Amino acid sequence: MKKPLVGALLSLFLMGAAAAPAVASAPPSDKAAAAVTVNFAGTVALSNCSGSVVRTPTSQPSDPALVLSNGHCLETGFPGPGEVVKDRASSRSFTLLNAAGSRVATLRASKIAYATMTDTDISVYQLTKTYAQIQSQYGIGALTLNDAHPVQGTAIKVVSGYWKRIYSCNIDGFAYRLKEGDWTWKDSVRYTSSCNTIGGTSGSPVIDTTTGKVVAVNNTGNEDGQRCTENNPCEVDANGNVTVRQGINYAQETYTIVACIGAGNVFDLNRPGCTLPKP
What we know:
Number of helices: 2
Helix content: under 10%
Number of domains: 1
């Protein structure tokens, strides 16, 4: 787990996604799609991690805004295996950044809408301001969560609000299971080697450079070549075979979040298609 830069020896980056669909491959194209400009606008810095203000494709301007980060970045500590946090009061603050990476405001949470480190490694905070208020007051829009499984080979950028640093690479593939210490994640994104993320980048949005949409949330990497230990996740395939990739980093897919959010940006884990773990 990438360390969240909070207190001393807590280890951090864990992994997992939600479902395990087949690996998608990039469709053939005669012309390369034009890349969008990816910058820091809409990203946030937490006390120990990175994050971003996000919306679903159907979120409305009047909805309370959401901030996405990792489950292991919670101010209350790591959720245990099988633990799900839902609608827990929180007054956590987030530093909102503009395109250049400069601080423009401090946003505050009203609650942890959802968080877990089971199957995936995500936290979603509900803020005290709406998207419309953030746009009107600070000129910053939310990043949109993609509602489809990411595609192998896609060019991506990992945008860290904590370090104000952007990493560029591609989706190398997907880990059927990613195991780290006591936690296991499903269908995790594996980066190519140039996304050499470090502690504090936990929770950074992973942005598709063609669409500008968030396809995953950065969360871990194998630091020392150890097998399945904290800070050294291993890949486990459907037959139980274990692969260790020292120096390679990973993220958790975010399309699974979209199906679980209904009107008013309310998490409803009983919605059709929602596969996130329940409390």
